[in-house]
Amino acid sequence: MTDKLKTQKYERRDFLTLAGTGVVALAGIGLFADSAKADAAAAAKQIKMATGGKAMMQGKIKLELPEIAENGNTVPFGVEVESPMTDDNYVKALHVYADKNPSPDVATFRFTPGSGKAKVSSRMRMIKSQNVIAVAEMSDGKFYTAKKAVKVTIGGCGG
């Protein structure tokens, strides 16, 4: 019942071919990394899509983020929206954006009056120092926003 492992013999030429392919692939990743960069305009476009271009007001949103993130790979955040969460007055959705990440839309959270509170916490990856923007969509069609800058010290590219 013992199966013998089948070994395959690789020639030096095969090894060099595989290694060369890997080097070319890694170089290609570096060549196209710039095309994946986002900027504030990309985040603004995403926000405009979410709000339908409606005006946003300040207030009602409490955004909890560190001023300095020691590790950009795991940045904790918390967002709470002031709302009674009743059938006629509640938070429908909460959108979180990071304006210099390759994909600026970090997360969208949906709520109902039965949610009780419009409060979330999670973690995000941040490629570099940037603004985090929260947008709350209310049941009456109004939008509220809050923004906070976060400085990334390590784990990001460019700080």
Record the SSE blueprint.
Elements: H1 12-32, H2 40-51, E1 56-58, E2 61-64, E3 68-69, E4 75-81, E5 91-98, E6 105-110, E7 118-124, E8 130-138, E9 143-152
Parallel strand pairs: 1-9, 3-9
Antiparallel strand pairs: 2-4, 4-7, 5-6, 5-8, 8-9
Q: Which labels suit this protein?
A:
six-stranded mixed sheet, alpha+beta, 2 helices, 35% strand, 159 residues, Immunoglobulin-like, three-stranded antiparallel sheet
Indicate the overall shape. elongated
User: What is the total tally of β strands?
Assistant: 9
Put simply, the count of helices is: 2
Strand content: 35-45%
User: Are there runs of 5+ residues with pLDDT below 50, and where?
Assistant: 27-35
Overall average residue pLDDT: 85
- Helix percent reads 10-25%
* Number of structurally distinct domains: 2
Could you tell me the CATH topology label of the largest domain: Immunoglobulin-like
> Based on helices, strands and strand pairing, what is the structural class?
alpha+beta
Radius of gyration from CA coordinates: 23 Å
CATH homologous superfamily classification of the largest domain: SoxY domain
Let me know the largest β-sheet: 6 strands, mixed
- SSE ordering: HHEEEEEEEEE
CATH architecture of the largest domain: Sandwich
How far from one another are the termini?
A: 58 Å
Which CATH C-level class of the largest domain is it? Mainly Beta
